[in-house]
Amino acid sequence: MQSHLKKLFPGITGVRLGPGGTCITALTSHHDEVLQLDRSVDTDCAVEVWLKNLESEIRSTLKGITLKCLRSTNMQDNDPFSLPTQIICLAQNIRFTEQAENAIANKTLRSLKDTIEKENATYSGVEVEDESDICKKRALILQCACYRNIVDGLIANNVSSVADWMWQKQLRFYVTQKDDVVAKMGLATIPYSYEYLGVGTGQFVRTELAEECFLILTQSLHFGFVGNPFGPAGTGKTESVKALGGLVGRLVLVFNCDEAMDASCMGRLLSGLALSGAWGCFDEFNRLSAETLAAVTHHFISLLRAMQEPDGANAVATLNGKSVTVSKWCGVCVTLNPAGRGYGGRRSLPAALARVLRPVALAEPPPAPLAEHLLAAHQAAEPHNN
């Protein structure tokens, strides 16, 4: 059982069993991170039943930990290193959104920047040795760097209202009156889905170009289109999609496209994404054959129409001739390399397919800011040698 679970839940490397070995009490992830479940999951039943129960309990446990963390007066009081990495990052994002909006309303953005600097110094000064704690510390420091850049932009543009576009275009996190967490960016509102992602969350440097990519991807979801980062290799197209998915609690599945994938194969992949509520990222999408690209257009249109149904009502897509219920957490994007610019086997997209894509051009990011943030985070996170 243990060897197969990580194929279904990529954030999980194993589980801990209770007495008798018939119930799951905790999950283990990479670098020995442990998630203790609020309630044990009985495995002495049909496999599809206990797997569904396990998925529900993971979401319930993560949501409970998030709300408990947010209700504490100070994040440091809650010992953030005792929490899962993604919950630390989520709680920090929610708190920053609240702090930034208060600072904008009270015109105290410079004080907020000082607070962020102090938090960063606090995290940098914490001594940790476990690999999972090092990853958590690195994530906190990288997020502080992102907040500092956001606040600098708000100050430089004299933002004095939360309705200002400079603030509205940022990825913001809120807790609703029903205790649900949602992310907002531009016109889009994306519910957090509490997929357990392990320690990989937060290990991404959010550059200005990555934020632009986030904006296009979120608005594409909102308006019922397919987000389409394109550009040369090494520009962070796929990593940006995975990073955004991690920030909103989504499992992102990456599929490398080639001519061997036909319309039926694409239909099966899209059906799985629709049912599971994962995000699919189809890399090098224009390597598919012309016939497959034409057929995929119909798949995309049906899936996108179902995703736009309000409150999930009648969210049914027709894929490979079958009706498939579409999860409210489903999402699809594609990445492209330029056709005819040294990339063999790439094709121009049919006009009908191009109309459902919303492209964003990515260029190779300047290495200096990336190196600066990554080196600062790694240097601060590594245990000091005597």
Task: Report what the structure shows.
Helix 3 runs antiparallel to helix 4. The protein has helices at 2-8, 47-71, 85-106, 109-125, 131-156, 165-168, 208-223, 237-247, 263-276, 290-307, 351-354, 367-381; strands at 14-17, 23-28, 34-42, 172-175, 181-185, 188-191, 226-230, 252-256, 279-283, 316-319, 322-325, 331-334, 357-361. The protein is an alpha/beta fold. The protein is globular and about 55 Å long. It folds into 3 domains: 2-71, Split barrel-like, CATH 3.20.180.20; 76-186, Dynein motor heavy chain, linker domain, subdomain 4 (Methane Monooxygenase Hydroxylase, Chain G, domain 1, Up-down Bundle), CATH 1.20.58.1120; 206-361, Rossmann fold (3-Layer(aba) Sandwich), CATH 3.40.50. The strands form 5 sheets. It has a 3-stranded antiparallel beta sheet, with helices on one face. The chain starts with a helix and ends in a 5-residue tail after the last helix. Helices cover 46% and strands 17% of the residues. The mean pLDDT is 90.
List the helices and strands and how they pair.
Elements: H1 2-8, E1 14-17, E2 23-28, E3 34-42, H2 47-71, H3 85-106, H4 109-125, H5 131-156, H6 165-168, E4 172-175, E5 181-185, E6 188-191, H7 208-223, E7 226-230, H8 237-247, E8 252-256, H9 263-276, E9 279-283, H10 290-307, E10 316-319, E11 322-325, E12 331-334, H11 351-354, E13 357-361, H12 367-381
Parallel strand pairs: 7-13, 8-9, 9-12
Antiparallel strand pairs: 1-2, 2-3, 4-5, 5-6, 10-11
